[in-house]
UniProtKB/TrEMBL annotation:
E.C. number: 6.3.4.2
Domain CTP synthase N-terminal: 5-268
Gene of this entry: pyrG
CDD domains: CTPS_N, GATase1_CTP_Synthase
Lineage start: Bacteria, Pseudomonadati, Bacteroidota, Bacteroidia, Bacteroidales
Protein name, as recorded: CTP synthase
Length: 532
């Protein structure tokens, strides 16, 4: 295609309707037709990135290969499309304003008064078109965070208005709203959608397509009514009903011709409908899997979005092992030597979750000791891997005061320590090993059996590392360091080969697990849990 086409996805009525899933589904359907597609998320909060946000506020922080801390929706984009996103795929208001202010301080505006229009909106537009200009994608899908009517979203909506005017048929707006069901009246109500579209029209944007989130089937008459009141073609009113899995959504969108409507409105040939064979095979296996594999998630955030990528990676790996992932959250703050057996005994496998800080850490040690001594398949991720090392040092090497410098600065047995180059950094937003790093695997290890290759690349997000001065002691006592970074000699993977499956990774393998390419470590872990 000669020119990049831009699709904007906005939301109305309520937040958390699933704009990320709709954006990913549109991307999947266009990609299946042979187009090159990328998706980006614009978030209206003033944080520079979600790296310093509490997971309770925003869910997990997703990390891209180039080391950017991003919104969790980027995980959906990568899992659905099998693409790799970068820093350019997630922009916050904080980054937009910082960029403009830095230019102003630098004198780039030659003494002009800096205003929302045109300076902020020009910077937003520059970022919208950046990926299309640089990589010549056929489609760039831009999801706007928040809800239409939020004061923070106005500069983004003004930028979309301008772009739709400038780009003509090369720009299109998909608006996602909610159709509530009033049980007392026994009716579905379209009024919130009408108000939401009016709100969008009031800032100069006429949506081209409406996607209606609903818990109940929408009648043809109801969709006609919405089309009439909102100035939208009847064929461009699509329902998005609750599904048993988010991975059903692209198929339901395809059935209603969402991709066909987009192509027609943008003046592109429609062609044959893609079969989405591998995607359907995945769903088929998912629905046929009736036996469960019970996995315990030991962590401190009692919120599923805080471990979103882990949950999806487990679910994908279970499907490819023809099982249903039955995931149980186990709050590490409440785990003690007295109740650990009761909490973990029914689990087929345990994940020791990542995180930062002291809270809930002792409960993780209790869980790890139980799993190690009872030979339960155990997977420690990032802080989870560090906890495995600390527990081993305490209970096997006999260093009862062993700890991480993160938790106890004065510990004499600092088996986990801060990296040398991080010691002078004080800025919370810039003190980590972030993004993809190389790792070389021991060919005799269980990790190698999973990957079936010696050189891998995985994504990191942490400040502290395994302290190599303890490496020989660990290995002599039975915990092997089987994955090493070739440049820094830092330990990336530990495992106890005498146990069924006891592996800790300093990196986050969950970030690179996708629907059609599940992560080998998760596949191997689930298989071990089934064998248990």
């Amino acid at each position: 295609m000669a020119e990049t086409k831009y699709i904007f996805v906005t939301g109305g009525v309520a937040s958390s309707l699933g704009k990320g899933i709709i954006s990913s589904s549109i991307g999947k359907l266009l990609q299946a037709r042979g187009y090159s597609v990328t998706i980006q998320k614009f978030d209206p909060y003033i944080n520079i990135d979600p790296g310093t946000l509490n997971p309770y506020e925003h869910g997990e922080c997703y990390v891209t290969v180039d080391g950017h801390e991003a919104d969790l929706d980027l995980g959906h984009y990568e899992r659905f499309l099998g693409i790799q996103t970068t820093k350019a795929n997630n922009i916050t208001t904080g980054r937009i304003y910082k960029s403009v202010i830095d230019k102003e301080r630098h004198g780039d505006y030659l003494g002009k008064t800096i205003q929302i229009i045109p300076h902020i909106t020009d910077e937003i537009k520059r970022n919208v078109k950046l990926l299309g200009n640089k990589y010549k994608f056929d489609f760039v899908i831009t999801e706007i965070g928040g809800t239409v009517g939020d004061i923070e979203s106005l500069p983004y909506l003004e930028s979309i208005r301008q772009l739709k005017w400038e780009l003509g048929r090369n720009a299109l707006c998909v608006h996602l709203t909610y159709v509530p069901y009033l049980a007392a009246a026994g009716e579905l109500k379209t009024k919130p959608t009408q108000h939401s579209v009016k709100e969008l029209q009031s800032v100069g944007i006429q949506p081209d397509i409406l996607v209606l989130r609903t818990e109940h089937e929408l009648s043809t008459n109801l969709k006609k009514k919405v089309a009439l009141f909102c100035n939208v073609d009847e064929s461009a009113v699509i329902q998005s009903k609750d599904m048993p899995t988010i991975y059903e959504v692209p198929l339901r969108m395809q059935e209603q011709g969402l991709d066909v409507t987009i192509l027609r409105k943008m003046g592109l040939p429609v062609g044959e409908t893609p079969t989405l064979g591998p995607w359907r095979d995945f769903l088929d296996r998912r629905y046929k899997a009736t036996e469960k594999v019970k996995i315990g998630l030991v962590g401190k955030y009692d919120l599923q979005d805080a471990y979103k990528s882990i949950l999806e990676a487990l679910s994908q790996a279970a499907t490819y092992n023809d099982r249903k992932a039955d995931i149980h959250f186990i709050n590490s703050e409440k785990l003690t030597d007295e109740n650990v057996e009761e909490s973990l005994k029914d689990m087929d496998g345990i994940i020791i979750c990542p995180g930062f800080g002291q809270r809930g850490i002792e409960g993780k040690f209790v869980a790890i000791k139980y799993c190690r001594t009872h030979n339960v398949p155990t997977f420690g991720i990032c802080l989870g891997m560090q906890c495995m090392a600390i527990e081993f040092a305490r209970n096997v090497l006999g260093y009862t005061d062993a700890n991480s410098r993160e938790m106890d600065e004065k510990t004499p047995h600092n088996v986990i320590d801060i990296m040398e180059e991080q010691k002078s950094v004080t800025n919370m937003g810039g003190t980590m090993r972030l993004g993809a790093y190389e790792c070389v695997l021991d060919p005799e290890s269980r990790a190698y059996q999973a990957y079936q290759q010696t050189h891998i690349q995985e994504r990191h997000r942490h400040r502290y590392e395994f302290n190599n001065s303890f490496k020989a002691e660990f290995e002599n006592a039975g915990m092997k360091c089987v994955g090493i970074n070739p440049d820094s000699d830092l330990v990336e993977i530990i495992e106890i080969p005498t146990l069924k499956w006891f592996i800790g990774t300093q990196f986050h393998p969950e970030y690179s697990s996708t629907v059609l390419k599940p992560h080998p470590l998760f596949l191997s872990f689930i298989k071990a849990a089934i064998d248990k």
